Amino acid sequence: MKKIVALGELLLRLSTKDYLKFSQVNEFNADFGGSELNVLTSIAKFGLPVEFITRLPKNDIGESALMEMNKYKVGTGHIPMGGDRLGIYFLEKGASIRGSKIVYDRAHSSFSTIQKGMIDWKEVFKDANWFHWSGITPGVSQEAADVCMEAIEVANEMGLTVSTDFNYRANLWKYGKTPQEIMEPMVAKCHVVLAGDYASKQYFDIDPEGTTEKELLISLCEKLRNRFSSIQKIAITNRGSISASHNTWSAVLHDGTTLHESESYNITHIVDRIGAGDSFMGALIYGLNTYDDATALNFAVAASCLKHTIYGDANLVSKEEVENLMGGDQSGRVQR
Amino acid sequence: MKKIVALGELLLRLSTKDYLKFSQVNEFNADFGGSELNVLTSIAKFGLPVEFITRLPKNDIGESALMEMNKYKVGTGHIPMGGDRLGIYFLEKGASIRGSKIVYDRAHSSFSTIQKGMIDWKEVFKDANWFHWSGITPGVSQEAADVCMEAIEVANEMGLTVSTDFNYRANLWKYGKTPQEIMEPMVAKCHVVLAGDYASKQYFDIDPEGTTEKELLISLCEKLRNRFSSIQKIAITNRGSISASHNTWSAVLHDGTTLHESESYNITHIVDRIGAGDSFMGALIYGLNTYDDATALNFAVAASCLKHTIYGDANLVSKEEVENLMGGDQSGRVQR
Amino acid sequence: MKKIVALGELLLRLSTKDYLKFSQVNEFNADFGGSELNVLTSIAKFGLPVEFITRLPKNDIGESALMEMNKYKVGTGHIPMGGDRLGIYFLEKGASIRGSKIVYDRAHSSFSTIQKGMIDWKEVFKDANWFHWSGITPGVSQEAADVCMEAIEVANEMGLTVSTDFNYRANLWKYGKTPQEIMEPMVAKCHVVLAGDYASKQYFDIDPEGTTEKELLISLCEKLRNRFSSIQKIAITNRGSISASHNTWSAVLHDGTTLHESESYNITHIVDRIGAGDSFMGALIYGLNTYDDATALNFAVAASCLKHTIYGDANLVSKEEVENLMGGDQSGRVQR
Amino acid sequence: MKKIVALGELLLRLSTKDYLKFSQVNEFNADFGGSELNVLTSIAKFGLPVEFITRLPKNDIGESALMEMNKYKVGTGHIPMGGDRLGIYFLEKGASIRGSKIVYDRAHSSFSTIQKGMIDWKEVFKDANWFHWSGITPGVSQEAADVCMEAIEVANEMGLTVSTDFNYRANLWKYGKTPQEIMEPMVAKCHVVLAGDYASKQYFDIDPEGTTEKELLISLCEKLRNRFSSIQKIAITNRGSISASHNTWSAVLHDGTTLHESESYNITHIVDRIGAGDSFMGALIYGLNTYDDATALNFAVAASCLKHTIYGDANLVSKEEVENLMGGDQSGRVQR
Amino acid sequence: MKKIVALGELLLRLSTKDYLKFSQVNEFNADFGGSELNVLTSIAKFGLPVEFITRLPKNDIGESALMEMNKYKVGTGHIPMGGDRLGIYFLEKGASIRGSKIVYDRAHSSFSTIQKGMIDWKEVFKDANWFHWSGITPGVSQEAADVCMEAIEVANEMGLTVSTDFNYRANLWKYGKTPQEIMEPMVAKCHVVLAGDYASKQYFDIDPEGTTEKELLISLCEKLRNRFSSIQKIAITNRGSISASHNTWSAVLHDGTTLHESESYNITHIVDRIGAGDSFMGALIYGLNTYDDATALNFAVAASCLKHTIYGDANLVSKEEVENLMGGDQSGRVQR
Amino acid sequence: MKKIVALGELLLRLSTKDYLKFSQVNEFNADFGGSELNVLTSIAKFGLPVEFITRLPKNDIGESALMEMNKYKVGTGHIPMGGDRLGIYFLEKGASIRGSKIVYDRAHSSFSTIQKGMIDWKEVFKDANWFHWSGITPGVSQEAADVCMEAIEVANEMGLTVSTDFNYRANLWKYGKTPQEIMEPMVAKCHVVLAGDYASKQYFDIDPEGTTEKELLISLCEKLRNRFSSIQKIAITNRGSISASHNTWSAVLHDGTTLHESESYNITHIVDRIGAGDSFMGALIYGLNTYDDATALNFAVAASCLKHTIYGDANLVSKEEVENLMGGDQSGRVQR
Q1: CB < 8 Å from C in window 40-99 of B
Q2: How far B220 CA lies from chain E's nearest CA (Å)?
Q3: CB-count burial class (<10 Å; 0-12, 13-18, 19+) for D230
């Protein structure tokens, strides 16, 4: 089996327990996460080899992050240790009508100081068939964007499939470049895209046209495809936010000709929705390496649906759990 | 800005974790609360200066209560320390079809032994424009009722607005007086009232008339206003209890001529509904000091709606969080 | 009051907290449970004397189990200590669309090595009027089945009512006998049965006939009654699994002539559904000793409905709480 | 085996975790304790039947206290439920040079309102051979003192051994009587006494004479014996407080002619020293019912030495653990 | 009473529980601390008004820090909110022969970006008589050093006493200036100094001379005084590190003519030694405002000795607790 | 670098928190351990590649054990999954004069059913230079002993160094063979031995001769060497048990001619002494692969000394921490 490789920032997640407000706590749950890492952790759980490229500080906190990746069989053999600090995000878990709140403390992170030339991409991609990145990575710093472009180029040269999740974050992109000038050439070398209308507007000023939901989705896919000829498949997830504890969840996958539509799930009593998009991306990559497109989509939606019941950034469900849900069992019965 | 002052009992709240029954636990969460204090904590979070008058025992538990009030910027500069003990309530948190259960252990509290003359109300009210009390305060003891009447009278003399929350508690009023004989002269000097049909019946034998819900509400307001000419505004909250975890919530405000009706909220996955009425009262007082009546009502309903997602007695949401919900966003989306 | 006696295995339950996956935890909640014990704990909470017969290892874990039974007034005076180990089950608590997962580690347990002659059933049943067992007990080992048959026979001789819960578990019955050959003679001496169509099919190859749900239920009861003439009453519970956090719950009781049907409850925000069937059985036994059949059924359904809100294997609600729910109050209001 | 009976107050103990100060915590460990109950719990762990007489409020907190006594096989069959509240003590656990701090909240407790005639002592003492009380009991209220005297008299009539622990508490004795006038006639009917020089001075104005420690101890015993002819055995414990985490511990037992002296233990890394005196008393009562005087003393000292390593009010060590320490093994080696 | 003012950085402290290694935890205790804040918290606990000047980010973490200061009555009225982030330090608590380990993550903090002119020192010092800073403050950044110098100058102009704790930290001082060039002019305007031989060497290349410990101490004091004529009093603490759990602790105070020497304490079973030096400084400032020099020294040593038993950065003991220890009671007896 | 391989049983460790007795807890800490695994985890932390051979059940508990080994970089690539269950040990942590207590529940484990031929030892040892086992492994079952012998033989053939830790456990060896008949031929093919006089007596009836401690040690080493000519180095640790919280610790290493003696450490405030012997063995293997004999011994003693401060079965200290202690710094100072 060939490896899936991703590049991105790993963050320390400090979250309040039991829906407490920041001012009520004197302890934080401490976990590690980050969009691209979450994607890989999902894939590793499903059984494919994966490797993560990031930069971590050379201290005990960086070491702990390495150990956590070891635990979930995420390869860490090419991470250049160094820099000042691990980025952090503080999470106040919401419930019901009160949404979760994130306070970022990721400025000046080790990852933001990664440099071109630090990674021997030829070596990294030797046994790999896929490279994944998200819009967060180039949003962190010029250096991170440069390394990401460097990876995309080597990946294309070596014939890997390149995927991206648009993942637009308004509070990034602070280093003097617009998202559009950075993203345009990068997306132009990608084959699989997890898009979204808001991000497509922010990055590329694309406005889908149509009156029905479906027409709008198809229009968005076509406009992206017209802009970026490299793109082969476009996925779009659809979250209906009824409350912080109750969402609906579905997705589509456009393969150039057909718009595959997934089942729509009703998810109440949500445990943790952070990382749901990443779990979709991870399961989609796994699926596209394993199934036909329609099945890959359904696998990805079912997997990410289950993510809403898993604490933490990463989806820790097994392939069997996902397939059971795909098979139609949403009953939540006790498995003995 | 002028201060909001309140008089009432502060209780130590000992609650079970994770919906456990009393017989299952060997630890309690320990927090401080009490109807009038909860009102002030809300107001302080919104940014107005507040001061709480109560009586606390001169020991480490009383000191801890003071520190907790400091934390939330509730003024404690005029609290006469002394007496035997801090009142306690034990809370077994319910869920679903099982309601929460409260065991009171508040007899013989320090607050029940507060005495007329202990508080220099003229001094306390110097920079204040509002005095609040609830029906719990005079229900505790003759002494507490006397001090409350003393405060109401000075407040009226000094031109403060006086508000009350009827808050009828059947397990109080054990010192030989009927609620009616005590409450009648006190409510007669109040300007803003948080009423309710059950409490109005218990205290004043008032039966609203009408066939529709709205007619009954208007009737109740008119009867109260006829009985107590001082009253300028009457608010009434309306809780629909579908289960311990699912309620509906709305309120009305009658200003003498108009019955303002709030939006009605559907609140599932309730975190903690204790103190929701107090959070309404606090936000209403804040609102009446800040907005027009209709907005004040909507602010109060939205604030108290959010209280159902906050652990503890007091509402710790910010003005921005309330205004966001008032603006219509009930989606509970993650705020980054 | 006469005692209710039961025979069965007591297990150590090791469960993850807060819906975490097994791989995420470094601590387990530790509780004791087991189908027949859960039945007795319920009954003891309602006020009848009970006694449990099992086998426990002679070590500190076995001692702790004894103490837990003491706590809930479950008699332990005739338990033959010995054998290798306490059976264990690991529980990964699910939520929403992800069901709970149980990993059994009960092989080679002390209970599986109980022997005929270890229990002086005449002595045990001296002050008793009821003996209860479930299909789990004979499924554990030939020895456990033999002791169960021994108890059933003495109970019949001494005029006790004998009840059973079919409780079919596919992962038991590994000692070389089919469930049918073992269960047939045992059920043939029972008077009250908690049945179910799946278990009836597995144990006795019974297929109910009919088109409506009610016809099927009556058919099942009649077929069981035709097969086992000793049976006087048959109860069947009906769980609708909408998700791991949302179920519907009702039951019927057939007394030979009439099919009593209970109210149906809608239970959202489930806290812990393990042991709900046992809590039904316990409340039914209590009810049949206390009320008429229809009331007993309603009591049992209301009690087991409340079990879904109680952490742990056993139902710890009081008779008053059940009667309050039977009386129609599902509002979950705070009880002060 | 005959029962050991004791009369006293049961308190809810709310303690801070991990040596935190009261102002640092938002949760308390919750346990039950009380001098005379602690004595009985020890004895029950060693295997003798025991019964506790107290008064508990008729609420869920009182019920939980009953269940805890059930757990440790402390008989509760004659407890008159009623009164306002369970007494509480708050415990701030100290370490090193900072001692633990106790804040009492026991005024107006249910036990303080126990009344003569509530207990049928003849019935209680039917199968008993020993009655124990401590100086705390009559210090609580006139009513408690009356009931204690009532019990002592019936115990003497019925030929039980009566033991007392002087246990002087300066913050009790607030009901208008001096300790001396109350204690004098009560101690005059006791046979076994756990005394101490400070308490003997406070209660009876006794000043031991002598120059060596041993002379002083013998003098104290003789003066007590001269004052109270009923006394057969006097025990005195000796704690050397090097710090909150490091004590020395020994005791003597005077049987009228001989002063038995125990081994002296050096106890560092103390886990919880609350209740050590009670554990001594419990083990002494057990020892005097089981061994000769010298062995009883050594058993009691070893048992109470181990108590310093047990969290909570009560000593939960087994007879085997005590005998192992008596045998000289203080090594704390791992027992596999 | 006049205020004590301090300037410094406030850090979020994230510590492992129960002596766990960083790699073993998935939660951190979260507290706030910082050398100069710790000094003020101590003083506030003893009863003097205090005010802290720092810079905090304008987010929920900064707000929580403000609330914590409110709780302990540390004034926060002049803190300019802004900047990127709150500095963090990770603490792995050691025990026995393994020392605690700190990982700093304080680069790019809000405090490091404080600017001259942000603080109206005339206003801040209006009701103050004392200004305190430590060597950490100018070590953070040029900007912090500038603001500190600004404060020292205004304080001198307005006649305040200025104190400093040398507090040399090798991992600071990274902005291109040597500690010596920065510290020299600042210490030259100080009146009370907490010095140390290592810091004196690092900052000012001072080598004390002499053969006995006392000669060396006196030499150090004289050399400092010769170098900085403003200095009136020099304190030096002396820690003997036997293990992470066992230290000795004493101090001296040189007033220009006399070297006062404190009692030496033996502290085993240390709970938390972080902040002990700060607690000494705080108690010394309180003492010098309250007692004579010798008593101030003894108060400071006793207070900081107790700090070793208090979890967290700040010393939360009361004046009574300190005076009790000063009075010679190191027994750690239970205070009832 | 060549791999270190070990064969042994992996156990789930369920331990009580905070020195609580088994009967006091309703939760257990859950960790994984086992003598030979602990050895490897230590070595992996120091930086050498390691691989563990065991058998684990094919369920979520077995999977979690695999993940934990991944985390610490213990290779798991050749583990044959299967069998009934993971062995468990329950640990009641003692303190002071009360030792820790272990209750084993390891009968019928997956490891006890490992079979000859399941492991391709040639493949496993391909990149290895060392094989380690302990006396626990053959004590578990005949099958485990057979597999261990199989490994020893292949290791000898392939020129690996073979080490063993005698590790005598009285509660194993229940399958009908004496320890001596099994151990004799196995030890006869070992090169490095961690011995002990008690185990040497139990296994081989060896009685050392001499009067001084040193003579006895040399005698034991010589007798072992005379019996087993393959042995090149013998290590013996020496624990002085002053209490459960205070031990002394040292060791010797005999290389055939010289008896190297280590420094002796005084360890108070022990956090967790389980696995100290294993940590010695691990550090010794690392040391013998890295240093000369005398340094290896000192490294091993210092490392295992630090183990007493680390929670859990395995030693998680780094090489730097060990070398710092070897260098003489036992002060436990804070490392910033």
Answers
A1: 94-99
A2: 42
A3: middle
